[in-house]
Write a structure and sequence with these properties.
This protein is an alpha/beta fold. The chain has helices spanning 3-10, 51-71, 93-105, 120-127, 147-166, 183-194, 206-214, 266-275, 282-285, 288-297, 303-311, 313-327, 331-347, and strands at residues 14-20, 25-33, 39-46, 77-84, 110-114, 175-179, 198-202, 218-219, 232-235, 254-256, 278-280. Helix 2 packs across helix 13, helix 5 (147-166) crosses helix 10 and helix 5 (147-166) runs parallel beside helix 11. It binds nicotinamide-adenine-dinucleotide (NAD). Nicotinamide-adenine-dinucleotide binds at residues 146-147, 150, 179-185, 202-205, 208, 222, 236-238, 258-260, 286, 289.
Length: 356
C-alpha cells in the first residue's frame, strides 16, 4: 500500500522525515491523531533495515498511542518518533539534540519521551533544544521511571479481570505465571506479593532470574512458562506471544500483562474469548507509563495524581468487560471500541488540536 493511502485509511495526520547531515540524524515522526490533545509518544532508536520499515513502525506505533491515551481518558493524542540508528554504537549528544530541534519545529503538536533505545539522559539533551519533551529524570523535576506506574496499572487491571472470573478481585492464593522479569514485571510482582499471590517466573537473562530467586520466586525455563499450572498468565516481555501455537498450552483463566501487542493476530483474541479466558488488553493495562508522563505535562509532575489515575485502570477494565459482554465481542475489540467512541464524541465538539 502507498504511504499516503495507508495514512488515509488509518487516520494519520502527519508524517515528517528529518535529516541532519552533521550529526548523521535520520528520523521519522508520525502524528496519528490530535483530537484529544498533542500527540505524545516515545522516540525509538533502532537500526531499522530500511526507511520503509522505519516508516511503517512509526505509523503503527503512533496509532497505538492514540488508542492507549484515548482509552486511558488522557488529554493526549498519538505520536511516535523513530531514529534510524543503533542506540549502543551510534547514539551521540549531537544526534539526539539535532532530533530535539526538529521536534521543536512541530510547535507542540508532538511531545516526545523515552522508548526502546532512548532514556532519561537523552530527554535531558532534547530538553536543551525544545520544551516539547517529557519523561525527564526525577532529579531534574521530571516524572522519571515509567515502569513503576506501568506495574501498578497491570496489577489493577488484573484484579478487575479476576473479579470477572472468580467473583472477587482478591489475588490471594492465585498463581501468576510471569513471562519476562524486567522493570515492569518486577514492580507488578511487588503488588502481587503483598497480596500473597504465588509467582512463577521466566526470563532469558540470568540477572533477571537471580533477582527473581532473591525475591523467593519460583523460576522455570522460557519454553515451560506457557504450560505452568496457573490462574493468570502475565506476558511482560515480548509481543505476539498469544498465538495458535501457544494458546493450546495455556492453563490460565486470565491473560493480563504489560507487553505491547501480545496477540499475534485479532483471531487469537477471539480464540481466548471462545475458550472463556479473560484477556486484559495490553494497552488498557500498560497505560501507567503514559499516565505518569501526562502528569508531568499538565501542572508539573505529581506522583499522587499519577497513582490515582493509574488505579483507575481497574474501572476502565471493568468497562471493557462490560462492552465485551454487551456486544458479544472479545475484550481486545471492546477496548478499541471504547477508545474509538471517545475519539468520535470529542471530534464532534472540537477541531484538530492547535498550539495557540
Ligand atoms: P525490560 O527490558 O526491563 O524487561 C523485559 C524482560 O523480558 C527482560 O528481562 C528480558 O530479558 C526479558 N525477555 C526478553 N525476551 C524474553 C523471552 N523470550 N522470554 C522471557 N523473557 C524474555 O522491559 P520493561 O520496561 O519491563 O517492559 C516489558 C514490556 O512492557 C515490553 O513489551 C514493553 O514494551 C512493555 N511496556 C513497558 C512500559 C514501561 O513503562 N516500561 C510501558 C508500556 C509497555
Amino acid at each position: 500500500m502507498e504511504i499516503l493511502e495507508q495514512m488515509g485509511s488509518e487516520g494519520h495526520e502527519q508524517l515528517v522525515m528529518v535529516s541532519d547531515v552533521g550529526s548523521k540524524l535520520k528520523a521519522i515522526i508520525a502524528i496519528h491523531d490530535t483530537t484529544l490533545g498533542p500527540a505524545c509518544g516515545g522516540t525509538r532508536i533502532w537500526p531499522y533495515k530500511s526507511e520503509q520499515e522505519a516508516i511503517w513502525d512509526a505509523l503503527r506505533l503512533s496509532r497505538a498511542m492514540t488508542y492507549k491515551s484515548a482509552a486511558a481518558d488522557l488529554p493526549l493524542g498519538g505520536g511516535k518518533g523513530v531514529i534510524i540508528a543503533d542506540s549502543h554504537t551510534q547514539k551521540t549528544e549531537a544526534l539526539v539534540r539535532a532530533y530535539g530541534r526538529f521536534v521543536d519545529t512541530l510547535g507542540g503538536r508532538y511531545l516526545t519521551t523515552t522508548d526502546v533505545g532512548s532514556n532519561g539522559r537523552d530527554m535531558e539533551y532534547i530538553k536543551q533544544e525544545t520544551d516539547y519533551v517529557v519523561g525527564l529524570p526525577v532529579t531534574v523535576g521530571g516524572s522519571g521511571d515509567t515502569s513503576i506506574m506501568t506495574g501498578l496499572g497491570i496489577y489493577m487491571g488484573m484484579k478487575a479481570c479476576a473479579k470477572e472470573v472468580w467473583g472477587s478481585d482478591s489475588l490471594q492464593g492465585k498463581t501468576v505465571a510471569v513471562q519476562g522479569f524486567g522493570k515492569v514485571a518486577t514492580h507488578m510482582a511487588h503488588h502481587l506479593m503483598k497480596e500473597d499471590a504465588t509467582l512463577v517466573v521466566t526470563d532469558v537473562f540470568d540477572g533477571a532470574l537471580d533477582r527473581a530467586r532473591d525475591m523467593g520466586l519460583k523460576v522455570v525455563g522460557p519454553d515451560e512458562i506457557y504450560g505452568v499450572d496457573c490462574d493468570i498468565f502475565a506476558p511482560c516481555a515480548l509481543g505476539g506471544v498469544i498465538s495458535p501455537e501457544t494458546i493450546p498450552h495455556l492453563k490460565c483463566k486470565v491473560v493480563a500483562g504489560g507487553a505491547n501487542n501480545q496477540l499475534l493476530s485479532d483471531g487469537d483474541g477471539e480464540t481466548l474469548h471462545r475458550m472463556g479466558i479473560v484477556y486484559g488488553p495490553d494497552y488498557i493495562l500498560n497505560c501507567g507509563g503514559i499516565i505518569n508522563v501526562e502528569s508531568e505535562i499538565y501542572g508539573g509532575y505529581n506522583a499522587d495524581r499519577a497513582r490515582d489515575k493509574t488505579e483507575r485502570v481497574y474501572e476502565i477494565m471493568e468497562k471493557v468487560i462490560s462492552i465485551s459482554q454487551g456486544q458479544g465481542i472479545p475484550t481486545a475489540k471492546a477496548a478499541d471500541y471504547l477508545a474509538e467512541e471517545r475519539l468520535k464524541s470529542v471530534r464532534g465538539i472540537r477541531p484538530v488540536y492547535r498550539k495557540d
